[in-house]
Design brief:
alpha/beta, 393 residues, globular, 4-stranded antiparallel β-sheet, 7-stranded mixed β-sheet
Length: 393
Amino acid sequence: MTQGRPLLNRRLAGFGTTIFAEMSALAVRTGAINLGQGFPDTDGPEEVREAAVRALRAGHGNQYPPGPGVPELRAAIAEHQQRFYGLALDPDTEVLVTAGATEAIAASMLALLEPGDEVIALEPYYDSYAACIAMAGATRVPVTLHPEPTTGTYRLDLAELRAAVTPRTRLLLLNTPHNPTGTVLTREELTAIAELACERDLLVVTDEVYEHLVFEGEHLPIAAFPGMRERTVTIGSAGKTFSFTGWKVGWVTANGPLVSAVRTAKQYLTYVSAGPFQYAVAEALRLPDSYFDGFRADLRRKRDLLADGLRAAGFEVYRPQGTYFITTDITPFGEKDAYAFCRALPERCGVVAIPNSVFYDDPDVSRSQVRFTFCKKDDVLHEATGRLSRLTS
C-alpha cells in the first residue's frame, strides 16, 4: 500500500493469476497429465515450421516488422477470408496483425469502449474477455448459454440476449465456435443476432479462432450477414489452426474505420511481434484444403476418443460441436464443487482439468462442471482416461 491505496488498479481487483497458470503449474508440480490448458503436445505442419526457419535465416522479420503486419501475411489473411467465406477485404486497410487473438481482443475493447458502456458477452467466456472489458472501464453483461442434457449441447436463448440490450449497450462480444462449451452458433441464431445489432446500432466483436474446428454444423462469420460488414470486428488466429500456439500470431479483419480504431490501441500494446513467424503463417494460410480437412477430422476423432473415455469413467459429457474442449459434469460422482475437484484431481488421478465456474460471473451456475482438452496425442488421452477411471474404483 502507498498513499492508502492498493497497488493494483481497482478495475483489475479480483483478477488474480489466471486459472490456466494455476492449473498448469499444478500439472508441473505433480507430474500430472495436463488436460486443462488448450495447447497441443505436437507441433503443426513441418513445412510451416521450415517456413519460419527460412524467414529467420533470410532476415525476414528479425527487425521490427510493419505495425499493421507484414504485407505477405495481410494478403494471405485477405485471401483466406475470400477463399473460405467469400469476404472481400483490402489487405492494406482492412487487416491488422496482432500478438495472438488475446491482444486483438484487448485492443478492440480498449479502442471501441468508453467508461460506462455495456458489453454483452456469451457466458461462460474466455477469462481475458472479462479483464479486457474491465480495463476499458466498461461493464460486462453476461448472457448465459444453457446446457441441454437431452442433446448434450449448449444453446443460446435469443430472447434472453434481446432482453439484455439496454440504451448503454455498445457492443456484443461473440465467440463461435465457443470456448469452453463447444457451441457453434447456427445460421438462424446469427441471423437474429445480426438483426438485433442492426436494429440497436451495436458493434460486434467476434472471436473466431476455432473456425476450422467445427465438427457438427458450419462456421459462418457474422460479418457476412446483411448489415454487419461495417459494424463487425472479426478476430482470427494461427495458433489453434496450425498448432503453433507459442508463435502468438493473430489478426483483426474489419472495414477500414474499425481497423484504424483498433490499430490505434494496438500500437501502444505490443506495437509489433512475431516478425519471422508472420511470414510462415502467410504460407500456412495458403495450405490446400486437404490440410484443413485432415486437421478437423483428426481433432474430431480425438474428441470422440476423450468423450467416450470420460463417459466410461463416469462423467456426464456435453459433446462439443467445435473447438478442442469438452465440458463435463461431476455430479455422478457425488461431487458438487468443481474447483475443489480440479485441485484434488492431480493427486487422486494424475490428471489436470479446469473448473468451468471461473468462466461465469456467478460460479454457482456451473459449480459442478469441469473442462478437459483433447488436443493431445492419442496415447496421452488413453492414459488420462484410464487414470480417471479410478474415480469409480
